Amino acid sequence: MKSALVCGAGGFIGSHLVKELKRQGFWVRGVDLKYPQFAETAADDFIIGDLRDPYVCRAAIDRKFDEVYQLAADMGGAGYIFTGENDADIMHNSALINLNMLEACHKRNIKRVFYSSSACMYPAYNQEDPDNPKTHEDSAYPAAPDSEYGWEKLFSERLYLAFNRNHGMECRVARYHNIFGPEGTWEGGKEKAPAALCRKIAEAEPGSEIEMWGDGKQTRSFLYIDQCIKGTILLTRSDFEGPVNIGSEEMVTINDLARMIMDIAAKPLGIRHIPGPVGVRGRNSHNELIRKRLGWAPDEPLAEGLRRTYPWIAAQVERKRGRNARAAA
Q1: Active site residue: 69, 80, 122, 149, which one?
Q2: pLDDT-derived band of residue 76, with 50, 70 and 90 as boundaries?
Q3: Which domains does the chain have, with CATH numbers?
Q4: Which residue ranges traverse the bilayer (predicted)?
Q5: Secondary structure letter of residue 121 according to DSSP
Q6: Which of 17, 45, 166, 301 lies 20 to 30 Å from 249 when distance is taken between CA atoms?
């Protein structure tokens, strides 16, 4: 039986990845600071531990795995990444995890390691026009990410590819673009835009309004979790090291994203724009390279993923209301 290690298996993408690897017949070990929040882990073995600690990394890699997926990071949505208040933690914590994991994999002679980078590493100067952002893979330099999170991702990309060159490893690097779906963080400040808007719309009374940071004209693309997992596994098992974008090319404004969710919820609401962190003006996945090298690219419409995500978040909102009502009684 083939085996896989998923680092960050208690997180949104990691927990979904574990489920898919189990469906494919793998023996799977997960490792994270916590278990998945919204469902039981599907992993055969799960280590609760801090990958900033090299001893935890060595304990997790006590055998030679066929595939290692390194998704663990200190990250969150715009309210966490762009305020500047968490920069030191973001860079220090994520860099330590990657340094420790690569060293542990190298010492165990594990070759095939997937690393999840982010579109946040692309230069801010190429993303000032919301209608024409440039995110093809070779546009990464001269480097000028819009956040320290992006700088750490860029450093770690180079770290994994250097281990390929110098130690004969077969690391694979993907740049994720805004992954969303059920069983992801939906409140608390680390949620991404689709989850935050789903929550706000589910909480709002009909005919009222929701708050949105910025003018809502900034553009993004969003990729449903199932498409992300498919692309991740295809890349990991391919002969292409990357870096390569894994994201949707369906670009929308944040205003339009909110209206799509309102339509799904059958709840027309107003939008009140307020000051807040928004990141770059435009970002959209460029998928020519992934089509060429993997013969595949995400193609599911955004609305399909939102139709599966909104009911799940709306149900979480109702459960929280019920708990609060019982606590107040």
Answers
A1: 149
A2: confident
A3: 3-179+223-246 (3.40.50.720), 182-221+250-280+301-319 (3.90.25.10)
A4: none
A5: G
A6: 17
